[in-house]
Amino acid sequence: MIESRPSLPATLDDVDGWFPKVDQRLFTWFLERQDRLGQSGDLVELGSYLGKSAILMGRHLRDGENFTVCDLFDSEAPDDSNQAEMEGSYATLTRTAFEANYRAFHDGLPQIVQAPTSAILDHVQPESCRFVHVDASHLYEHVRGDIQAAHVMLPVEGVIVCDDYRSEHTPGVSAAVWEAVAVDGLRAVCVTPQKFYGTWGDAKPVQDDLLEWLGAQDDLWHETQEVAGRRLVRVKGRPAPKPKKKNQVRELKERLARIEDQRARAQHELDSVRNSVSFKVGRAATALPRVMRRRRPPQG
Ligand SMILES: C[S@@+](CC[C@H](N)C(=O)[O-])C[C@H]1O[C@@H](n2cnc3c(N)ncnc32)[C@H](O)[C@@H]1O
Question: Which InterPro entries would you find in this protein's record (predicted)?
Fold first, then answer.
């Protein structure tokens, strides 16, 4: 029997996962800014699923840096609640599928830790990273541990991104993120509808650069707010502008004119075929036997 394999993705849009466009833009901005400022360090993702965000992060890996992803993939979760999450949301996930997707965009694989995220510090050195994406379990105890591990892995100017910090179904993530802000010195740089971006360093210079960049992005909306006396930038995507009514009418008229032009040309071609000698001879040849049959006197 021939086994049918899913086709390989050609673009990030073809990869299943949870990585909105606005966050794709912001990941790129944060990672490119670090590059511009000469900040080097490793990249870590806790929770990769089929690789949507990992594939983008891997594009920013430079010589001498490591990228580590940590995910349970198709192995057992460390506790019943986590196992229920896995069966509810990621039942068909396999490591092989992640690897195939990642290889469709990159020559090599990242370092893969197929284990609970609580094992990450066995594989990544303290203060060795510049960017950590926390996107694994949604349970408070796990996320709290993941944020604490990120604090260990990042030097002071490093960037942490936490997914689902405000979703209705993930109150445990919200609790862990805001707890880190309230008691563990984490500073919010910005938030999008789905992700929280922060640092244990000085958020101000990052926010200043971000606001300057956002001012020039027509497809991104932003505002600043004070939260507990600290500046916070909110960012989200703008819906694509609808074409103006006047333009729509003009476009419709142009389409109509094109259709009328095609119809007139087809009519012209039909007329020239009908008037051609070969068409008339052909018609006469097929008409003759019919006329002869009609004229033939009845038999008997
Ligand atoms: C929301 S998905 C990640 C989405 C992905 N970053 C993307 O861009 O599409 C969460 C992932 O975390 C993994 N996960 C859940 N609990 C985990 C745990 N305790 N340790 C490691 N990985 C875990 C799941 O297997 C799943 O692949």
Answer: SAM-dependent_MTases_sf
Dist. CA 73 → ligand 1 center (Å): 8
Cβ neighbours for 65, distance < 8 A, ≥ 6 positions apart: 40, 41, 42, 43
Ligand 1 nearest atom to the CA of residue 53, by list position: 8
- State which ligand 1 atom lies nearest to the alpha carbon of 45: 6
Contact 41, 66 (CB under 8 A): no
- 4 pLDDT higher than 80: no
Q: Which mutation among 48, 138, 139 tests ligand 1's pocket best, with the greatest number of atoms within 8 A of CB?
A: 48
C-alpha closest to that of 34 among 218, 224, 189: 189
Q: What pLDDT score was predicted for residue 2?
A: 53
Alpha helices in the chain (DSSP H): 21-36, 52-58, 80-89, 95-103, 140-153, 171-183, 203-214, 245-274, 277-295
CA gap 12, 19 in Å, rounded: 9
Q: What is the pLDDT of residues 172-226, one digit of tens each?
A: 999 999 999 999 999 999 999 999 999 999 999 999 999 999 999 999 999 999 9
Ligand 1 is surrounded, with C-beta below 6 A, by 17-19, 47-49, 52-53, 70-72, 77, 82, 85-86, 90, 93, 116-117, 135-137, 142
Which atom from ligand 1 is nearest to the alpha carbon of 50?
A: 9
Are the C-beta atoms of residues 60 and 32 closer than 8 Å to each other? yes
**Closest protein CA for atom 9 of ligand 1:** 17
C-alpha dist (Å) from residue 167 to 173, 231, 236, 268? 8, 22, 15, 63
According to the model, what pLDDT value does residue 42 have?
98
What tens digit of pLDDT does each residue of 82-94 get?
A: 999 999 999 999 9
